[in-house]
Structure formats: structure tokens, C-alpha cells
Design brief:
By secondary structure, the chain is mostly helical. It has helices at 2-14, 18-25, 37-50, 54-70. It has 4 helices and no strands.
Length: 79
């Protein structure tokens, strides 16, 4: 289920609905105990950037990058 939620949020962002993506992902962000957390965080950061909140986007990107490094994750790149 978390993977599907992340992909749905990604579609929200791509279709110009970043607020919906934030509403979908923000509740999951504190509980990052699943394997798609870097993907979730990268979509969440993009949604924050699209809503005009670059400071929050940067905080989330920093967290995603540290999680990716810890997991040796080179697949879920951050833009």
C-alpha cells in the first residue's frame, strides 16, 4: 500500500495537484520504516516546491538524501 500511495502522490504532482500530494504523503513522512521512504520524500519535496515552499522542499530533500546514502540507494535520485 505505501508504494501505491507514493505513486498516486507522484501522479498528483505531475497533474498539477501538489497540495493533494502533500496531504497524501505528509502523514506518512514521520514513519519512515518502509523501503520506499526515499521515493516518498522526493515526491513530497517536489510537491512542496510546486506549492511555492522552497524552504520546506529543501528540508525534505536533505532528509531524502541522507536516507538514500544510509540505504546505499542510487536508484531513487533526487532532482
Amino acid at each position: 500500500m505505501p508504494y501505491a500511495e507514493c505513486r498516486l502522490a507522484e501522479m498528483d504532482v505531475l497533474q498539477g495537484r501538489p497540495t493533494e500530494a502533500i496531504a497524501r504523503l505528509q502523514p506518512r513522512a514521520p514513519d519512515l520504516q518502509w523501503m520506499y521512504d526515499v521515493m516518498l520524500l522526493s515526491v513530497l519535496a517536489e510537491a512542496y516546491a510546486d506549492t511555492g515552499d522552497p524552504a520546506e522542499a529543501e528540508k525534505v530533500v536533505d532528509l531524502a538524501q541522507s536516507r538514500a546514502r544510509l540505504m546505499h540507494n542510487r536508484v531513487d535520485g533526487l532532482e
